[in-house]
Design brief:
Layout lengths: L2 H13 L2 E2 H10 L21 H4 L1 H17 L6 E6 L5 H10 L5 H4 E6 L3 H10 L11 E4 L10 E6 L8 E6 L2 E9 L5 E5 L16 E4 L1 H17 L1 E10 L9 E4 L2 E3 L9 E3 L2 E2 H10 L3 E7 H7 L2 H10 L3 H15 L10 E7 L17
Parallel strand pairs: 2-3, 2-5, 3-4, 5-10, 10-14
Antiparallel strand pairs: 1-7, 6-7, 6-9, 7-8, 10-16, 11-12, 11-13, 15-16
Helix pairs in contact: 4-5, 8-9, 11-12
The structure holds S-adenosyl-L-homocysteine.
């Protein structure tokens, strides 16, 4: 039994079953035993690989998106270049390198990284140890978005929202009941349902349907959109998930590149849920922001020119390297199950003065 498993069992024995959202929050963010608190899970030797770790092209194109969006917003200066959940800092390092093509961008920027994991903060410090000299405002760390200074912002979030807790509601005998984590007769963690119906959900659905409520994700999106509407700016969220709200149980655990049981060995696996982009878009729209997308990651990266970038990199690479570049291009934009081009989506929210957004082609089929 993991130390976190023991602690969660004690908590449930004392206080009763806990919502799935609380369980997820403990698995990932428990100050001592939380998954992200104790390790760097990213990379081949870890549990999962993310887009910026697959190829420098990803961070470079996101950097170009940031630079173009900054120009389209009227080049606010100074502004905060924010990243939520920056992982190993690879995306930000690649983005800064690419964004220096926009005159004045780095001179106006201060980088603000929102990160809870002490282990990953160290990785980020190393990756950003020598940022481009033009970056006038330096690099700063915060535990929460609320702590980022109040100014125009361009925010980036790759595979961040999937790590935020969701509530799960289950359609049971004509009512919605919250899914809870409790103890079975043998004292092991097991799923159950709250005895009382939750009257706040009024959707019709067949018996057994699961509705996920992105409680934490919409709170972050509301805060981002509120700041953007008040002070100016834009935010880009890229993640695996769906464009429309549906009825599906997407709670998953990943350990060493394979699916695992989310209730086994809490704290040792990445427990996440697919991102419901419709809920994020609704939250941003309600706060007064303009919403672009979601579009598929493949469409977004192609619109930003990933194919041209791959060709340019391959032109000055060895044969082996250019094969790797081609494979990375397919992995990031392709449509096979193992690729990220369709499962992953990009969503931008911006100040309403931004009437078009790089990477989001107007007539693009929404996904
Ligand atoms: N964006 C990176 C890392 C994705 S993993 C990449 O694409 O490689 C998720 C990241 O979010 C990690 O850096 C993790 O420590 C961070 N994180 C998870 N929950 C968080 C929270 N509530 N607040 C801030 N950061 C969080």
């Amino acid at each position: 039994m993991t130390p976190l498993g023991a602690e969660i069992r004690e908590l449930i024995a004392a206080q009763g079953p806990i919502p799935v959202s609380r369980y997820m929050a403990l698995c990932l963010g428990h100050p001592r035993y939380g998954y992200y608190m104790t390790r760097d899970p990213i990379g081949l030797s870890g549990d999962f690989v993310t887009a910026p770790e697959i190829s420098q092209m990803f961070g470079e194109l996101v950097g170009l998106w940031a630079a173009q969006t900054w120009i389209d917003l009227g080049s606010p200066s100074p502004f905060a270049l924010v990243e939520l959940g920056p992982g190993r800092g690879t995306l930000m390092a690649d983005a800064l390198r690419a964004a220096k093509v926009a005159p004045g961008f780095l001179e106006a920027a201060a980088v603000h990284l929102v990160e809870t994991s002490p282990v990953l903060r160290e990785r980020q410090r190393a990756a950003l140890a020598s940022p481009p000299p033009a970056l006038a405002g330096g690099v700063h760390w915060h535990a929460r978005l609320d702590d980022v200074p109040d100014r125009p912002l361009i925010a980036l979030a790759n595979e961040f929202f999937d790590a935020l807790p969701v509530r799960q509601m289950v359609r049971d005998r004509g009512a919605w009941r919250e899914r809870l984590v409790g103890l079975d007769a043998g004292g092991a963690l097991g799923f159950g349902l709250a005895p009382d119906a939750d009257p706040s959900v009024s959707w019709e659905a067949p018996e057994g349907a699961v509705l996920e409520i992105a409680a934490a994700g919409t709170a972050v999106m509301r805060a981002l959109a509120g700041r953007i509407v008040a002070a100016g700016g834009a935010a880009l969220a890229i993640d695996y998930g769906h464009a429309r709200t549906g009825f599906a149980d997407t709670l998953q655990a990943i350990r060493r590149h394979a699916f695992a049981d989310p209730l086994v060995d809490p704290g040792e696996a990445d427990v996440t849920a697919h991102v419901d982009f419709a809920q994020l878009a609704t939250a941003a729209g309600a706060a007064g922001a303009r919403v672009f997308g979601p579009v598929t990651q493949g469409a977004f990266l192609r619109a930003l020119g990933i194919e041209a970038r791959a060709r340019a990199l391959a032109a000055r690479a060895s044969a082996t390297q250019s094969e790797e570049i081609g494979a990375a291009l397919v992995r990031l934009t392709g449509e096979r199950d193992a690729d990220m081009g369709v499962l992953f989506k990009a969503l931008a929210v911006a100040h309403p003065r931004l009437t078009a957004c790089a990477g989001f082609i107007r007539d693009e089929e929404p996904c």
